[in-house]
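Title: Prediction job returns without error message
Component: structure pipeline
Severity: low
Priority: P3
Assignee: unassigned

Description:
Job completed but the reporter wants confirmation the result is attached to the right record. Sequence as submitted:
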Amino acid sequence: MESRLIPTPRSLADIDLRSREVIGRGWGKIERFIFRHRRFGGEWSREITRDVYTIAEVVNVLPYDPALDAVVLIEQFRTCGLVWGEATWLFEAVAGIRDEGETPEEVARREAEEEAGCSVTSVHPVTSVWSSPGGYGERAHLFIGMGDFSSVGGLHGLAEEDEDIRAVLVSLAEAHAAIQDGRIVDAKTILLIQWLMLNRQNLA
């Protein structure tokens, strides 16, 4: 079958950006974009208004101990559930914001140590993704971090960032089962666990 997954050639010339305005600031910022874009048929769209919320460019890393075939997950409170009247303490991969001058790999190592007490010996890139492209500007770089994590666990996080994080070491099989039974509901963590299930035999 002929492949249809060939991206349509596009550049900024195919976007007529009329205005870009910051309409809210807090931990992140909300920007309002007014624009037209080139449609697949070649004509221009009508003028469209979209609001985009962005905190930062982020890095996510799933620490993996190949000798134990186990991963390190962190549990912490997340504000998202308050939107729906829920208490959301979530199991996740390690995550952190990329500071100016840092490479994504450096962030992965730093955050693994800060949030989970993991000394990562090697970092393997998985992919870079848009978390929720309809209205969220976050770009996320995903990694697997390799090392000996047999003694990892306990409470971690930076007090000045109000972090209260519990790290747990679990078998990869249990982590995968936790996706099926609903204990893990974070999208980036699901992606990383499933990628690792398919590709761990290729990691050195």
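Comment from assignee: result matches the submitted record. The CA atoms of residues 144 and 196 lie 8 Å apart.
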